[in-house]
């Protein structure tokens, strides 16, 4: 199983974290660590995930979410 680290910048809205976690789970990724920092009207998320799938699959799906501003 591969381990990947992601950094996201998202809008600060109540449902955003739930959507991100749902996308990760539905795409076959397990979130192992998460750090969240509020910066004014945005949130910076640092997430570590594990999966046998490629990271590109998750990044492409997260980038489609309307409140996700950046995925690294």
Mean pLDDT: 97
Poorly predicted tracts of residues: none
What is the string of helix and strand elements? EHEEHE
CATH class designation: Alpha Beta
What would the principal axes of the Cα set say about the shape?
globular
Total E-strand runs? 4
CATH architectural name: 2-Layer Sandwich
Helix content: 25-40%
Could you say which structural class the secondary elements and strand pairing correspond to? alpha+beta
CATH homologous superfamily designation: ACT domain
Looking at the structure, the CATH topology is Alpha-Beta Plaits
Main beta-sheet annotation:
4 strands, antiparallel
* Span between termini: 20 Å
Radius of gyration: 11 Å
Instruction: Tell me the strand percentage band.
Output: over 45%
Summed up, the domain count is 1
Number of helices: 2
GO molecular function: acetolactate synthase activity
Keywords: Transferase
EC number: 2.2.1.6
Pfam families: ACT_5
Feature tags:
single chain, alpha+beta, Alpha-Beta Plaits, 2 helices, EC 2.2.1.6
How are the elements arranged and paired?
Blueprint: E1 2-11, H1 16-26, E2 30-39, E3 42-51, H2 55-63, E4 68-71
Antiparallel strand pairs: 1-3, 1-4, 2-3
